[in-house]
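ARCHIVE CARD
Drawer: 12
Card no.: 0347
Subject: one protein chain, sequence and derived structure
Cross-reference: see card 0346
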Amino acid sequence: MQSPWGMDGIEENTKTRNVEQQNKLNERYQLYANVFNTTDGRKVLEELRKILNGSTWNPDRTENHGYYREGQNSIIRHIITCVENAKS
């Protein structure tokens, strides 16, 4: 059914843009998987987990330190999420 306001083209452009964006996102996920699904990549990721992943809040530190540590941890979570998304 055609839109009475002539919006069909806009809707189609939005669908095309969404497909293109999803394709770019899937490509980015695959890049992460290509790097971190190798033997060396898994070793690097494990080392990053040991160094960066852990408690963000410490009563002996300022709250800014907690924000800083959470930023580090978010990098690890981002990498893991990208690798997992490449599998699906």
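Annotation on reverse: The chain has one domain: 12-87. The mean pLDDT is 82.
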